[in-house]
Specification:
Elements: H1 2-8, E1 10-14, H2 19-32, H3 38-59, E2 65-69, E3 101-102, H4 105-131, H5 136-142, H6 154-157, H7 162-186, H8 194-217, H9 219-224, H10 227-246, E4 251-252, H11 259-262, H12 270-275
Antiparallel strand pairs: 1-2, 3-4
Length: about 280
């Protein structure tokens, strides 16, 4: 009797395993190496094979399972007799779309500008500390679009070049605003710990992407970049931009409106019907 009781109080469930996640990471790196570096594909290939072998060993020839103790419920659950308020046809689109609230585009633009200023201050400070010039980092950024600076020496990069300053300003401002808009769209999808996503996770992901592709985008910057300062600049941008965006009041998405209103179709009397 005791054995039957113990048997009834436990259930078998599939055992947790990290192999599917390792397989997915390896497959991603294998394809990422096609546009970055051969070594990235090799690392991804090894991880893919290891993840696949480990995953199959978890399910073949016998699936790995573990027992979980179940606490029996002594009380009988009686469903509450509460009426259900059904949505009308077309109301809320009969489907919830998340997030319910978003930041306006102006929040992303303001956050991008503020983050861009913070990042520029840190970048210029790096040029002054390591090379004694305000223009060193600016000229390196301009070399992305100016062929005559791609092979320039350190003395040239330390001089003020008006054309390089204008080009760097356009590149930096455009990238800052675009990333700021991305923050405005992205942060509502992560309601918990937005500061962590804005200041740590996103900058590190962006830095990793640039580290793997910078030799193609800007060989001069790849050869001269100080990665510790680069990461600091990215974190500074993310922290300031995320703070500005997060302080902006959110607006409701259009999903709370009737379908006819969202599509621009005139629907006289629809507003009064919703109030009744």
């Amino acid at each position: 009797m005791a054995m039957q009781e113990n048997r009834d109080n436990v259930i078998e469930v599939p055992a947790p395993t990290p192999w599917p996640m390792l397989f997915a990471i390896g497959l991603t790196l294998s394809f990422a190496g096609l546009v970055t570096a051969f070594t990235v594909s090799m690392v991804g290939f090894v991880l893919t094979i290891a993840g696949a072998v480990g995953w199959f060993r978890e399910v073949l020839p016998v699936e790995h399972r573990e027992t979980v103790r179940v606490t029996p419920i002594e009380e009988v659950i009686v469903p509450a007799k509460i009426g259900v308020d059904y949505l009308r046809v077309g109301e809320l689109g009969n489907r919830a779309v998340l997030p319910l609230e978003i930041y306006p585009y102006s929040a992303g633009i303001k956050g991008g500008i503020a983050g861009g200023v913070a990042m520029a201050v840190l970048a210029v400070a790096q040029g002054v500390i390591f090379h004694g010039s305000l223009w060193y980092t600016i000229n390196i950024l301009a070399a992305t679009a100016m062929a005559n600076l791609s092979n320039a020496d350190t003395a040239t990069l330390c001089r003020f070049i008006p054309e390089a300053f204008v080009v760097a300003l356009i590149i930096h401002a455009s990238a800052s605003i675009l990333v700021g808009l991305l923050y405005g769209v992205m942060l509502p999808m992560f309601p918990r710990y937005p500061a962590l996503w804005a200041a740590i996770v996103a900058p590190l992901l962006w830095t990793g992407l640039l580290w793997s592709s910078l030799r193609v985008i800007n060989p001069l910057l790849d050869a001269r970049i100080e990665w510790r300062w680069f990461i600091l600049c990215q974190i500074g941008f993310g922290a300031v931009a995320g703070f500005v965006v997060n302080q902006t009041e959110r607006v409701h998405t259009l999903q709370h409106l009737p379908f006819a209103v969202r599509t621009g179709i005139e629907a006289p009397g629809l507003g009064e019907e919703r109030k009744d």
